[in-house]
Design goal:
With 358 residues, this protein is mainly alpha-helical. It has one domain. The chain has 16 helices and four strands. Strands 1-4 form a two-stranded antiparallel ribbon. It has a two-stranded antiparallel sheet with strand order 2-3. Helix 2 crosses helix 13, helix 8 packs antiparallel against helix 11 and helix 14 crosses helix 16.
């Protein structure tokens, strides 16, 4: 009597695609960017400093809105907080700016916890308005500190901005003056922060927490039904992005060397423009905010002299992209040409094994 053969027992595995070619390309671009100050003029270095910190800010906001579903219009709270904490640590505190920047990140992350306990009670448009109100509270609070300039602001002493390690070495190596050497060191620091933001976003999205973020982005109710702790995941992302945004804000105002409440907590400069970059580049992707930041930088550089026409073109571009490329410029390119520089999507791999598990 024939014994029926055992049916195959399928096994499942989740895989995240990866390729060596994008890694090599990105590594080459970062290496070239690191070496660029050796041949570039000071004007280009200052422009790239602006581009890099806007890229980093857009990436932080993208993690919040594009993955965690937290549409914040109050991220200027942590930019201003980071700038003022840097001034407080370096002026009265006497701490070296290079040491102060990571301390600023830790304090910003710690202050994000009580902030989250307030704004996380709100949903949708109320959450967005709540984050803006919190930013305004921060602005009013820091305007009361006379030691930090009050409502008119204050400037960093040149001895503070010139105390960053490496400036004297750059001066001797390249035979340049102190302001130019300071710009080069600031450039490298901002480049490192931007690269660190990319690494943080990429590693987070490829982890199990990233899988949960993807589920929240695609369908919040379904993610909750599958056991995803949405509150804890969102809280972790909020605190992490607050810490990164605080360090970016510290770096911005170390380079600017002057701060005031209205500038540090500007919703236009540090949130509205960041939202624009993320949306036109492609929200919910790592590449999108970078593309959007480049487009915004080019438009600001070459169209800002046209006055109101610059804002008209900016708005028209945003409307055009939202109508004809809802996933942003990078989303359109990625779907059309199947290009991905930072692969984070997962696929289900099924193996048919026999009854013995082979």
């Amino acid at each position: 009597m024939d014994v029926p053969s055992a049916k195959p027992v399928p096994t499942f595995r989740i895989e995240t695609s990866a390729s060596l070619v994008p890694t090599i390309i990105i590594g080459g671009v970062l290496l070239a960017a690191a070496l660029l100050p050796l041949i570039a003029n000071r004007d280009l270095i200052q422009n790239l400093i602006f581009l890099f910190y806007m890229m980093a800010l857009a990436q932080c906001w993208n993690l919040l809105a594009g993955y965690a579903g937290l549409i914040s219009v109050g991220q200027q709270a942590f930019v201003g907080l980071g700038g003022y904490l840097l001034f407080a640590l370096t002026l009265p505190g006497g701490i070296n700016p290079l040491i102060a920047i990571p301390i600023v990140g830790l304090i910003s992350g710690a202050l994000a916890l009580p902030t989250a306990l307030i704004v996380f009670r709100l949903r949708g448009a109320y959450f967005a308005i709540g984050t803006w109100v919190v930013a305004e509270v921060y602005r009013l609070v820091f305007a009361q500190f006379r030691a930090l300039g009050g409502g008119t602001g204050t400037s960093l002493d040149p001895s503070v901005t010139s105390s960053v390690p490496g400036i004297e070495w750059i001066k001797a190596l390249m035979n340049i003056r102190t302001p130019a050497a300071r710009d080069i060191v600031s450039y490298w620091l901002v480049l490192a922060l931007m690269a660190g933001t990319l690494v943080l976003a990429y590693c987070m999205l490829r982890s199990r927490r990233g899988l949960a973020l993807g589920a929240i982005r695609d369908n919040e109710l379904a993610a909750a039904g599958l056991g995803v702790d949405i509150y804890r995941i969102r809280l972790g992302v909020y605190v992490a992005t607050a810490a990164m945004t605080g360090m970016i804000g510290a770096m911005i105002y170390l380079q600017k060397a002057r701060i005031s409440p209205d500038a540090a907590f500007s919703v236009l400069d540090w949130t509205a423009y960041v939202i624009f970059m993320t949306v036109i580049g492609g929200i919910g992707t790592i590449e999108g905010p970078m593309v959007g930041a480049v487009v915004f930088y080019l438009m600001q550089r070459y169209l800002a002299d046209f006055g109101a026409w610059y804002l008209i073109v900016l708005g028209a571009l945003g409307i055009f992209v939202m109508l004809f490329a809802p996933k942003g410029i990078w989303g359109f390119v990625s779907e059309r040409y199947h290009v991905t520089l930072f692969p984070t999507r997962r696929r289900l791999v099924i193996h048919a094994n026999d009854s013995n598990g082979r």
